[in-house]
Amino acid sequence: MISPEKIREKAQKQYKAFLRATVLEESFFPFDLPVGSIPKTYPELQASVTELINSSKAKKGFGYTVRLEPKNTRKYGLQSLPQKIFIENETDYLQLIDQECAFAHFQSDIALIQSTTPGLSSWVGHYPLKVVAYHGDWPDLIRVCQYFQQNPQPYLYIRELPIVVHTKFIEERKGILSSLLEAILPDEKLGTVEGEKHTFERRFSLRYSEPLVRLRILDPLLQQKYGFPVADFSLAISAFAKLQLGSPRCFITENMMPFLTLPALADGIAILGAGYAVNRLKLANWLLSCRIFYWGDLDSAGFDILSQVRTHFPQTQSILMDLKTYQTFRDFEVPDRKATVETSLNLRAEEQALYLKLAMNKRRLEQERISQDYVNRILKQID
Length: 383
Hints:
This protein is of the alpha/beta class. Helices cover about 45% and strands about 15% of the residues. It has helices at about 5-15, 15-25, 40-55, 55-60, 90-95, 100-115, 120-125, 130-135, 140-150, 170, 175-185, 200-205, 220-225, 235-240, 255-260, 300-310, 325-330, 350-360, 370-380; strands spanning about 30-35, 65-75, 75-85, 210-215, 230-235, 250-255, 270, 290-295, 315-320, 335, 365.
């Protein structure tokens, strides 16, 4: 037979459903509870029924109601047993689970949300427990929501937003604000989010400390043409994506020292790929019209990165990642314990063959082990 503790536990588990019914103005009471099975011994039966009645509304003035009826039992004869257990109304329910105060806060928060931000009416029906969890924050949360409704793409840093909340408020509540803003802003005003960093800022068109792209102008004539005061500089990825340099030859290197030592090349620029960070370059659509040459380590990771670059820029050619280069400098190769073998990389036939050779034998030849004279000679041969 069900115990008073189990009744309270089952009632507590329905708190979200109760709150949702309140918001949607749906019927929730009477709330029926299972009686459970009859205990195996008479003392247990007697104790269970007594405990159940003593903790009921009839004795305590609130909580669940027990409806008894006479029943003939095979083992104990005629007994007055619980036929139905239910919670009659909201007051009984809230007192039973000790949520009177919290529910009063919930009602006031719901009234505030619905009166000031009607677009969240559906949201509060889906997430009533979040309304409860953020009691005390709703006036400020609503201020943020109303600002974004009026300025859906502010392009400001969080600290610059002209909202009367303390400077850390938004930073510390990105999770709940993401849920709220996605509920009230039109889809066309929401940014596409990929990766794990700065998702809130990108989703809601806010500025953030962007990763930098390092660039070298390899042709003095290009530098002069576009008025760059220096040939080696870094800029935010969003600024890089907006560059207008025509269609130069782009040489992307995996590592820093090869990037710094690329020779002067006609109509050429160098871009530091920085390993897998090279994927950020996909934002720069102007690179699609450029000839792109990628130079990475001769190892499984280097070819994997080449494959990813080619996914964004199909015209990409590899340089210094061929069998001849490997054989020329193979005395400088080292073990590669992290080598992996993939079968679906976007590689040319010769690249695939060398990739498999290196990956299966767990060997690698780093860019820096290839002599500068050899690099210069190969690059000068590119038309």
